[in-house]
């Protein structure tokens, strides 16, 4: 009946069933159950038969009266609380059932995908989907994403695309550093309000910072050591020459900005040093800045002295 | 007659007619406060009446002792002596067996490079006499004083050899980063000169001469007016006589000027002459003048039986102080005196500029100081010009309009022509400027091994450590290397 009446159905309801392939029409379900009931009744009919079976072929059917038509929703989930969500979940489950035998990759090697967050998903479906319910979707998505990338069927690809974020943050990869024609690698480091551009070239351990020697720039030995810490921690201090330009901030910030820049530049020469550099604390940028002053406070946190009256 | 007690003093006045109530001033002072436990001398001392009264108040509280100084205060001059003392030995440091001494032979050998050689004992005394050791240097950490033979040391040894053999003279200014070893280079030059029998005169710190710590007086008959520093000159003469034993053999060969303040025997030894000046500051300046003129007499003009004059090494440390246009000394019209109007500094500057010749050869060596020097744009410009001049002879520098070289005069500065004339004057063109670079890694390794052998550096001296410390010390700046390895140990 749904197929017959589809021309008369409102657009909104028609749109409700985007995946009709897996969808069994309501009418056939009804008729099947009726037949089953009749079969049941016939099996028991030997004991008690109310009436002979109606032979429908002999009954002259009147042409249907459109005014008697009952609108049947396109989606079976129409009467659930969140029909689109249920549709999506069912569709994903059927896909998983269909492709669950496809070979998968190792857990860590699946392509990194940023799935839509629950709030982004809510905007798409327009339904108040709970986070706990969305995790069912996510669980299936993650399983489907494990399928070997070369074997993913186009149908599945299209389906997964719906759940991916519009902007893929993992696609935004830093351009890999290169060693230029003079053998220099380049890295930028920042700390507090300092910023350092560091060039590394294979050499004998000479250091020039803003065109001056390191002893002139950093009076404290501690600052010198932290500036060259990336090289010192990896035992490369006498293998490279450092040429850095550093601006902003004070001595500590400048020295530690050079650390980060030198570590990045060193990773261009020797990418395998990344774990060692991470252990030495030369990879992660320290995001701390000066805390702002607040109204009512003397400084960021300090309160004025309490005065009687 | 009733016995009426005196209620103030609880004494029984046996006789009222006694002079208690009509005391004489002398008596009053002796018994003004009969009940007080303080001695009468103390009451006398307090002339103020109110304090005298207060002394009588019965006080239950224990009075604070006024001079609550438990520690012994240092005697006058003790702190300065402590600050300036030179320690040349440390019995806790390990002795290094087989450490060679600095000799005339091994100081110019290429093989000695990177080795630490000990300073011979009598040379230590001489160097101590000329105040070549500085309190800031790390002599007191080692068993005995030793010096690293660096590339420049060998160059100096060869240079001194050449100057002596050819009778030539050279004027040189040492520049370099702070802690790059300029003062020690001067010390090494002095050691070599002592070993070779040269005469050495050293002004250990030019700042001492200009900050007004020594007495000064106008030099009569000088035009423009010059100023002498009698006691410093006497000190310098004492230093010369103690450190240069060869002066004993040198005899006065010229007659002293007619206005010489004291009569001196004709054949007096120069050591005796210097000793005379050292003992009496009043005659120190004329004696110094005579001594210098004697030392720089051409050997050709000396009688055959007299000893020939050895070459002269005249050194001065902290050159920027000697170039100040305003010293702490004032003229009679209360204008600051230019450093070059002080006779001792003028003498040195005349030699440095070449106005006074060194006929028997010698070396005039001035070291700049990078530790808190007074700003002196004239000196900076003059030295930069000479340095770029000598550099441009080897390779032509590319002109960079955005980064003007320090050898270009700054239009916003005023330059002192008297300073510029020393380096640019008629004779000044030949002053050499030598920039002391950092140590090479081999030299740094030799030095660090010496520290390790002395038990001060407790690490394995290998390529890695040397490379690391070399980089951290700005490319082998000795002072920084020392600071990073042996001073700032945790």
TrEMBL record, chain A:
UniProt keyword Transmembrane present: no
Gene Ontology CC terms? mitochondrial small ribosomal subunit
Q: Which UniProt keywords apply?
A: Ribonucleoprotein, Ribosomal protein
MF annotations from Gene Ontology = RNA binding; structural constituent of ribosome
The alphabetized list of GO BP terms reads: translation
Q: Where is this region: Disordered?
A: 290-309
Similarity-based family: Belongs to the universal ribosomal protein uS9 family.
* NCBIfam families given in the database record: PRK00132.1 (NF001099)
Indicate what this protein is called per its UniProt record: Small ribosomal subunit protein uS9m
Q: Lineage from the top down? A: Eukaryota, Fungi, Dikarya, Ascomycota, Pezizomycotina
Gene from which the chain derives: MRPS9
From TrEMBL, chain B:
> Can the keyword Ribonucleoprotein be found in this entry's annotation?
yes
Q: Could you tell me which residues belong to the region Disordered?
A: 387-410
Q: List locations, semicolon-separated.
A: Mitochondrion
Q: Where is the composition biased (Low complexity)?
A: 387-397
Task: Name a single GO cellular component.
Answer: mitochondrial small ribosomal subunit
What the entry lists under InterPro entries is as follows: Ribosomal_mS29 (IPR019368)
Q: Which domain of life is it from?
A: Eukaryota
Which Gene Ontology molecular-function terms are recorded?
A: structural constituent of ribosome
Q: Keywords in alphabetical order, please.
A: Mitochondrion, Ribonucleoprotein, Ribosomal protein, Transit peptide
Is the keyword Ribosomal protein in the record?
yes
Q: Where is the composition biased (Pro residues)?
A: 398-409
Family per record: Belongs to the mitochondrion-specific ribosomal protein mS29 family.
Note the PANTHER family from the entry: MITOCHONDRIAL 28S RIBOSOMAL PROTEIN S29, SMALL RIBOSOMAL SUBUNIT PROTEIN MS29
Q: What is the name of this protein?
A: Small ribosomal subunit protein mS29
Q: Which organism is it from?
A: Heterodermia speciosa
> The organism's lineage?
Eukaryota, Fungi, Dikarya, Ascomycota, Pezizomycotina
Gene encoding this chain?
RSM23
């Amino acid at each position: 009946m749904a197929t017959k009446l589809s021309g008369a159905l409102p657009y909104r309801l028609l749109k409700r069933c985007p995946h009709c392939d897996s969808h069994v029409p309501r009418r056939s379900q009804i008729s099947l159950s009726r037949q089953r009931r009749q079969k049941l009744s016939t099996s028991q009919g030997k004991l008690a038969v109310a009436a002979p079976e109606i032979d429908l072929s002999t009954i002259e059917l009147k042409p249907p009266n459109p005014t008697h038509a009952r609108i049947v929703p396109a989606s079976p989930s129409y009467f659930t609380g969140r029909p689109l969500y249920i549709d999506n979940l069912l569709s994903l489950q059927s896909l998983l059932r269909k492709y669950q035998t496809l070979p998968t990759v190792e857990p860590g090697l699946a392509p990194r995908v940023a799935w839509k967050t629950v709030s982004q998903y809510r905007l798409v479906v327009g339904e108040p989907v709970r986070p706990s319910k969305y995790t069912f979707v996510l669980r299936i998505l993650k399983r489907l994403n494990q399928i070997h990338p070369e074997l993913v069927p186009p149908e599945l690809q299209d389906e997964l695309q719906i759940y991916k974020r519009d902007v893929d943050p993992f696609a935004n990869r830093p351009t890999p550093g290169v060693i230029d024609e003079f053998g220099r690698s380049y890295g930028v480091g920042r700390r507090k309000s300092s910023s350092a551009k560091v060039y590394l070239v294979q050499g004998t351990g000479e250091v020039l910072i803003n065109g001056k020697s390191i002893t002139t720039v950093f009076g404290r030995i501690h600052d010198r050591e932290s500036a060259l810490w990336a090289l010192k921690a990896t035992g490369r201090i006498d293998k490279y020459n450092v040429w850095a330009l550093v601006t902003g901030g004070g001595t500590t910030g400048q020295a530690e900005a050079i650390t980060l820049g030198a570590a990045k530049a060193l990773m261009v020469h020797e990418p395998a040093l990344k774990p060692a550099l991470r252990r030495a604390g030369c990879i992660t940028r320290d995001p701390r800045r000066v805390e702002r002053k607040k109204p009512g406070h003397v400084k960021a946190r300090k309160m004025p002295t309490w005065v009687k009256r | 007659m009733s016995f009426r007690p005196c209620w103030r003093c609880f004494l029984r006045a046996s006789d009222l007619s006694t002079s208690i109530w009509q005391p004489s001033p002398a008596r009053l002072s002796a018994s003004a406060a009969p009940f007080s436990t303080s001695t009468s001398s103390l009451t006398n001392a307090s002339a103020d009446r109110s304090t005298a009264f207060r002394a009588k108040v019965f006080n239950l509280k224990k009075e604070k002792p006024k001079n609550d100084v438990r520690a012994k205060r240092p005697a006058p001059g003790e702190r300065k002596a402590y600050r300036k003392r030179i320690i040349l030995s440390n019995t806790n440091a390990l002795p290094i067996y087989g450490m060679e001494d600095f000799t005339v032979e091994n100081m110019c050998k290429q093989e000695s490079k990177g080795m630490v050689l000990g300073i011979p004992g009598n040379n230590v005394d001489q160097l101590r006499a000329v105040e070549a050791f500085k309190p800031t240097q790390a002599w007191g950490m080692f068993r005995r004083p030793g010096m690293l033979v660096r590339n420049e040391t060998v160059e100096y040894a060869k240079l001194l050899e050449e100057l002596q053999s050819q009778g030539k003279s050279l004027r040189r200014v040492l520049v370099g980063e702070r802690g790059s070893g300029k003062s020690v280079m001067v010390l090494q030059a002095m050691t070599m000169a002592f070993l070779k029998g040269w005469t050495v005169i050293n002004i250990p710190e030019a700042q001492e001469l200009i900050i007004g710590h020594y007495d000064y007086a106008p030099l009569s008959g000088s035009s423009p007016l010059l100023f002498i520093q009698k006691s410093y000159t006497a000190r310098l003469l004492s230093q010369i006589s103690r450190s240069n034993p060869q002066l004993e053999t040198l005899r006065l060969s010229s007659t002293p000027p007619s206005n010489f303040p004291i009569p001196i025997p004709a054949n007096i030894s120069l050591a005796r002459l210097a000793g005379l000046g050292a003992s009496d500051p009043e005659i120190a300046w004329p004696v110094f003048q005579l001594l210098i003129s004697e030392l720089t007499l051409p050997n050709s003009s000396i009688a055959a039986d007299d000893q020939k004059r050895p070459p002269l090494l005249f050194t001065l440390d902290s050159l920027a102080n000697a170039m100040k246009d305003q010293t702490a000394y004032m003229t009679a019209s209360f204008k600051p005196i230019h450093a070059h109007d002080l006779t001792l500094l003028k003498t040195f500057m005349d030699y440095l500029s070449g106005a006074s010749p060194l006929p028997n050869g010698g070396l005039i060596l001035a070291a700049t100081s990078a530790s808190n020097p007074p700003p002196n744009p004239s000196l900076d410009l003059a030295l930069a010009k000479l340095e770029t001049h000598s550099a441009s002879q080897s390779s032509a520098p590319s002109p960079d309009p955005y980064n003007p070289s320090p050898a270009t005069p700054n239009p916003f500065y005023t330059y002192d022509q008297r300073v510029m004339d020393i380096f640019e004057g008629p004779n000044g063109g030949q002053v050499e400027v030598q920039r002391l670079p950092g140590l090479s890694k081999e030299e740094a390794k030799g030095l660090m091994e010496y520290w390790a052998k002395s038990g001060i550096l407790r690490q394995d001296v290998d390529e890695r450590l040397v490379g690391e410390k070399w980089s951290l010390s700005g490319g082998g700046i000795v002072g920084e290397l020392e600071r990073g390895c042996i001073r700032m140990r945790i």
